Amino acid sequence: MPKNKALITIFLIVFIDLMGFGLVIPLLPFIAEKFGAEPYVIGFLTATYSLFQLLAAPVMGRLSDRYGRKRLLIASQIGTFVGFILLAIAGNIWIVFLSRLIDGITGGNISIAQAYVADVTTKQERAKGMGVLGAAFGLGFIFGPTIAGVLSPYGLAVPAYFAAAASFTTIFTTFFFLKETVQEKEAIKSPKTKVNLQEFKKMLAIKPLGTLVIGFFLLNLSFSMLFGNFALWTQKEFNYGAKQNGFLFAYIGILAVVVQLGVLPYLVKKLKEIKLLLYSIIVMAIGFFLLPAIISPFFIYVALTFIAVGNGLSNPTIQALASEDVDPHEYGGVLGFFQSSGSFGRIFGPILGGVLFSAFGASTPFFVAAILITLIYFYLRPNLKPNLKLAPSKT
Fold this sequence. Notes:
Layout: H1 2-24, H2 28-34, H3 39-67, H4 69-89, H5 93-106, H6 109-120, H7 123-151, H8 157-177, H9 184-189, H10 197-205, H11 207-238, H12 242-270, H13 273-290, H14 298-322, H15 331-360, H16 364-384
């Protein structure tokens, strides 16, 4: 029961974070335009969150290894609350940038949430636990844009105030219901919090872990081409507007929740994590190959089903594999670097997709993503199989 209560609390933290992120996506262009921002400025503004999440996640993870998960989770949620308040009251574009910067830094708490799940689960349970976090991601992306659409007619600041209020409640939830998992003696043993390029290179040099980090980066890069260019593609090919795209993105989120809460726990019992990861990558590649060939709107849902199922299975599985054979006091740092590699992919994916869209045509980003995902499969298959140990845990 205590473990379930902890997982529910972590689920709420991640859900609120991702709901806020999803809520901001449809609002940012309009908030920025209010202050006279040009489209390229809006592009930089959109990238600010992922950029600072990239920089902050390893630091947040290492700090949680040293000072405890609970303290850092509370501090990060306070930062998220401040970020949304600043967004709501912003009087110029620089305050908007500051709000996204703060929210990006505190968005590094995702790695702490992952480390907490690793702390309270056995190796057999870990993929399932990461799947719960993945479901929080999916639900956040469903509810965030929906809430923005419902509340924005009352003013662009109203959704931001709503997100601030939601993040405020998780501060108290964490304080009262979440127990610390890093004991004082373990925290003292933890290495000093110093994150630098040499440490990142050292992690990449560890064959299984480095392979997974590169694979996670490329998966996020490929998937971000969908989020960065999908609406433009549907507009060009089928004259879809925001309403239709909203339904399509909600469909992706719903599938992610169903897969990670319902399908993933079953498959983890039937397959080893490595096989599950490789199969899910194949499924996602099929979806991306289908998108450029679609000739009717119905088949968009078919392609998105492959993509959403593949992504919904691969993300928690690869994160669970990254925590294998890692000392418990290193979970935060390792998963922090993992989160950073994902953020790096989410920064450059939309940029690369946009360049390909403009230079070679609307469907090109999806074709390139399909090729990349196929290459990921052939990269991971030989590098993971002989190296990762997935023997049952004795805990």
